[in-house]
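Help needed: design a sequence for this.
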């Protein structure tokens, strides 16, 4: 039995040694012994390469404005581990985390003795979330963010009321496949029979795959720029204005504080999702709930200004598609300012593509590293993409301190979300 939060977290993190083990059998085994809490959850399931976290948060914020109790399951965490399981945007308490771990640990030990083998950290925390929302604190809705892929992701044992697939890009290719079609097939594995799908994918080959799977499952598909549209997009220093239109609604001058055209897409996916809930499931959401929910939503670690004088912005752009959107956002909002980029990422990413794009906006770029098992070294990053304005500083704290000496520069820190988590903590405490 766990009695302290520290011991609980140590046990959960000890599961990291089992790595990534795609498949649903271990989850199904644990759910059966827990009395299938996942079957009592009114779920919204969100997959995609980028934009999952923001889309989850937009949906939550709108439903919360309408007076609903909304649970979320997200990953990774940025500030505290508990935020992975949250209610109305508030992480569960340390005491609740201890209670959940004590419930799941005996099952984990029993499961380890079977032919199914040891569950991973992600499977353990996912099982904890299902038990929490299904048995301890039921919510009106629970929004589940897929961890990796979709088809064999631990979250894919739920039967949601609506499915969302944000965007598709070339990430985790060693696991999901090395073509858009293969990756889309894995992401679209969350589509369930008769459950509608809302998607922001744009590549023709990805759309074809999703259309085929949706048709096979008799799942109605709503596509961005076909069934709902964004127009009159205007970027301002405060955020983004846009108009949303579908066959049912026309909302002018919606506003979000999150910057970037990709955030406008994420917001439109959220609006379409709640529009569906309102139209077909009698969920009481009106235009003002949508407007205020979008405007109030905050999502840390995404083009977030965490310090002034000098300006320090962090953004968890952890793959080429994310970097592409970050570059577009910088050009829209910081076009006249010199940028010092500090970059670190995991070794299994397409690092050359990411760095090449960042070089477009960087007056200086510093490669660095951080404390994580798969983090690339600064010197390796420099070897991948050397340039006159590039340097390697292994300690990210030193890299930040050096960047602060460049007068008049905006410091843009980007790469792995695990990196951003550590950076935010350091800057908040020392700058």
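Sure. Designed sequence:
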């Amino acid at each position: 039995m766990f009695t302290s939060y520290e011991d609980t977290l140590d046990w959960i993190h000890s599961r990291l040694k089992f790595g990534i083990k795609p498949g649903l059998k271990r989850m199904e085994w644990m759910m059966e012994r827990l009395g299938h809490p996942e079957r009592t959850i009114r779920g919204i399931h969100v997959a995609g390469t980028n934009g999952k976290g923001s889309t989850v948060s937009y949906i939550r914020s709108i439903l919360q404005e309408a007076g609903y109790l909304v649970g979320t399951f997200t990953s990774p965490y940025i500030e505290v581990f508990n935020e992975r399981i949250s209610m109305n945007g508030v992480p569960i308490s340390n005491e609740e985390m201890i209670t959940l771990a004590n419930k799941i640990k005996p099952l984990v030990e029993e499961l380890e003795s079977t032919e199914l083998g040891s569950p991973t950290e992600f499977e353990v925390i996912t099982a904890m979330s299902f038990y929490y929302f299904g048995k301890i604190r039921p919510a009106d809705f629970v929004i589940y963010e897929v961890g990796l892929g979709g088809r064999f992701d631990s979250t894919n044992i739920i039967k949601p009321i609506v499915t969302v697939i944000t965007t598709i890009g070339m990430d985790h290719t060693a696991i999901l496949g090395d073509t858009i079609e293969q990756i889309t097939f894995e992401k679209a594995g969350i589509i369930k029979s008769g459950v509608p799908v809302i998607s922001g994918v744009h590549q023709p080959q990805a759309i074809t795959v999703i259309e085929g799977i949706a048709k096979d499952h008799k799942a109605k598909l709503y596509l961005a720029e076909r069934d709902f549209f964004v127009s009159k997009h205007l970027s301002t220093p405060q955020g983004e204005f846009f108009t949303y239109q579908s066959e049912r609604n026309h909302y002018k001058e919606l506003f979000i504080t999150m910057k970037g055209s990709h955030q406008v897409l994420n917001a439109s996916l959220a609006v379409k999702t709640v529009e569906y809930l309102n139209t077909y499931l009698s969920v009481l959401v009106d235009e003002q709930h949508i407007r205020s929910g979008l405007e109030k939503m905050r999502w840390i670690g995404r083009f977030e200004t965490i310090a002034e004088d000098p300006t320090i912005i962090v953004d968890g752009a952890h793959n080429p598609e994310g970097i592409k959107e970050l570059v577009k956002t910088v050009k829209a909002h910081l076009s006249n300012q010199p940028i010092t980029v500090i970059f670190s990422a995991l070794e299994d990413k397409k690092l050359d593509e990411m760095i090449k794009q960042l070089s477009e906006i960087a007056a200086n770029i510093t490669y660095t590293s951080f404390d994580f098992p798969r983090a690339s070294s600064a010197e390796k990053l420099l070897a991948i993409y050397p340039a006159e304005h590039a340097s390697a500083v292994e300690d990210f704290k030193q890299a930040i301190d050096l960047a602060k000496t460049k007068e008049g520069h905006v410091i843009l820190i980007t790469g792995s979300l695990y990196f951003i988590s550590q950076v935010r903590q350091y800057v908040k405490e020392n700058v």
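The longest strand covers residues 228-236.
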